[in-house]
Amino acid sequence: MIFFWAFLIGGLICVIGQIMFDVFKLSPAHTLTILVVSGAILDGFGWYEPLIDFAGAGVTVPITSFGNSLVHGAMQEAEQHGIIGVVTGMFEVTSAGISAAIIFGVIGALIFKPKG
Fold it and tell me: Which ranges does the record mark as transmembrane (predicted)?
């Protein structure tokens, strides 16, 4: 059943993003920002963790999970280190994913040549 809920909730997040593109004519940057901020807000209220428990990869794979990671890391480090933990917590939790995106992007740019 976990696969069904992951598919349904993850698909719903994608449908919301597509509606933002098609109906509201938002740019990819605006859509991305709205989804990241909504994930951050859900985590700020403590609603993202129960959603992860319910839908699993359906909510950990989409971009909303990045907002969740930012706020989750910031709040966790803020409890231990105070206000400076807010900044360090965001970077600590998300640094591996951001580093991987940069490294693989550079490798892809070196290996493949654009057509046109």
Answer: 6-24, 83-112
